[in-house]
Amino acid sequence: MSHRAALTPQMLQYAEKFDDRGDIRWLPYLMYFHAAGHRSEVVNTDSLGFRLSQGPDGQKSAVAEHLPEGPVRLLAGSSTAFGIGASADRHTLPSYLWSKHASSLPWLNFAGRSHNSTQELLLFLLHRHLLPQVDEIVLFSGFNNLGLSRLPASVRGDHGAFFNCNDFYGQMEELRAKNRKGSGFGLFGGRRGAGPAAPAQDRTLPELAEQIDLASELTLRHLDSWRILAEGMGAKLTYVLQPLATWVREEPAPQERLLFQELDALSDFGAVYGDISSMSARESYSKELQTGCERLGVNYLDLNPVLADALGPKDWIFVDRIHFTDEGHDLVAGLLARHLGLS
Known about the structure:
Layout: H1 3-7, H2 10-19, E1 25-27, E2 31-33, E3 53-54, E4 60-61, E5 72-77, H3 79-82, H4 93-101, E6 107-111, H5 117-127, E7 134-141, H6 143-148, H7 153-156, H8 165-180, H9 208-233, E8 236-241, H10 245-248, H11 254-266, H12 269-273, H13 279-296, E9 299-302, H14 303-310, H15 326-340
Parallel strand pairs: 5-6, 5-7, 7-8, 8-9
Antiparallel strand pairs: 1-2, 3-4
């Protein structure tokens, strides 16, 4: 049996339903979202695909299931905020905030697996009308934008690269090539012909400093829109730079070391993400984000040094380098409540 199966058996269910591209829900505008109405002992979603969070008396809630009348608080972001790694819904960050560390108001899980900042914002825009009064929004994010900024400009476009983008652009290029061979009238009424070939795509990868600049600019651009929306709703907004194992400490806990080594044999983390996983990269990235947040008037918290101070050398909190164990979710939720003044 693998270390991953022995130490984190819940990850097999995430891989089966939430990693498999055959089970991804391809959605217009958003590109993709979680399986809707999914039920298991590990993860449950409502009819829209939002994960259920759990309160102090066992009550469960999501955007389309048992929605409180309000006011509510939102934890937005990508897979870490969604709770990949938790052995059950009650062990995610929104659930620990609601049930234990900041229980004065319900917390909704408003996160999207593998989303970048564009998708995080769109997810909120597309579903905001369903929400009651929102008192607080905590945007727990940051790594995906930086990781995706390593891709060439040809796939980053104007709004940043997204996961599975090579599949998307490949399919679109096949469709474009097919339509070039056709004739007749196209979608918008113009005559369709062969037309010019698509220009050659630049595959140059940016250097580390440029990656940080690209990720910071995109994150802050979208954060400014979050700020405008939050102000209009009368909600407090905080941006939290999420922890990464290699941003938190140099030496992982013993269980983490076994898991990381096993995962690296399948897909080498260093080869995929390069220098952005270093402590110095996190410091540069965090500095740019903090400066931008101060300019926008948005509260900012880099949770990496906060988490580092709270850990002992043998404390096991990561199931992989970006997602938490149940104990990790509990610890991080408590740190969020303490440092953001949540009650």
